[in-house]
Design brief:
- It is a single chain.
- 29% of the residues lie in helices and 29% in strands.
- It is α+β, with helices and mostly antiparallel strands.
- The protein has one domain: PPM-type phosphatase domain (Phosphatase 2c, domain 1, 4-Layer Sandwich), CATH 3.60.40.10.
- The strands form 3 sheets. The protein has a 6-stranded antiparallel beta sheet with strand order 1-2-14-13-7-8.
- A hairpin with a 3-residue loop joins strand 1 and strand 2.
- Helix 1 crosses helix 4.
- It starts with a strand and ends with a helix.
Amino acid sequence: MGAYLSSPKTDKFSEDGENDRLRYGLSSMQGWRATMEDAHAAYPDLDASTSFFGVYDGHGGKVVAKFCAKYLHQQVLKSEAYSIGDIGSSLQKSFFRMDEMMVGQRGWRELSAMGDKLNKFGGMIEGLIWSPRSGEGNDRVNDWAFEEGPHSDFTGPDCGCTACVAVLRQNQLIVANAGDSRCVISRKGQAHNMSRDHKLDIEDERERILKAGGFIHAGRVNGTLNLTRAIGDMEFKQNKFLAPEKQIVTANPDINTVELCDDDEFIVLACDGIWDCMSSQQLVDFIHEHLKTETKLSLICEKVMDRCLAPSTSIGDGCDNMTIILVQLRGPNESIQLEKSSSSSSNQDE
């Protein structure tokens, strides 16, 4: 989707971080696309025992991806399921909550503040800007869909985004995915997909679309969307007689949980701009090779994007926005060494 530039924008936004459980690097690049519609989230210390990473690949506009990057992890923390240790349920509820929060007056205002072209949203008037009122905290999210006033009947944005989220807590990895971004774990050098791409080649996805009153034309949902699950895209979620998970396009994520072991080396989350160019195993092999000589993980992410970038738009693949997060897991021995080093530094300071 979207127009191409005459030459790619190869400037990269990169970041590195670490704690006693892991270290991570990430990078994103606009590439050949006319606009950058990806967003991401990296919170190695979501709480004392939990890390959160997410990739959000926008389509039709950037605001839903930005909205998710800002709020989805907050909703995970607020969830009652999270407080009792049910990470999978908290992730599922939070994916659905994104759609709920983007309708009504407050959702309209927040999306307006994040966007640059208001006419991308159904029901908006170009040139009319209504910024959030002063004094309203961003943490007041429970009443978003129930405010009265102009645009309180806003049904949500027509653009959307994929969401692929990885949560690490103690020895567990929990992955939630809606769309065609992907999470892969490297175990003894072998790539293991922690998510599946929600495309029309999955029979269950096609059945849901047709049962909900949608159709498939030219390999796209209702002739427009080339994936079957996403946050936003509210035009596909207007059947009031169906539950959210049964709509033509649903935000309902697949949830996969795995117990981590000493053979697990790193996790990669990336948008389809990467996976269009490299298979899961090819990417794992590429990272393994560069880990031999490069210690800064964000630089490896940058090299992945340079490897994927097409030389021209005539190629097709390699012309999309690209975002990748690489999370390297610390083995038990490494964590012990870090603790000893930290303890030794503390004693010296005293």
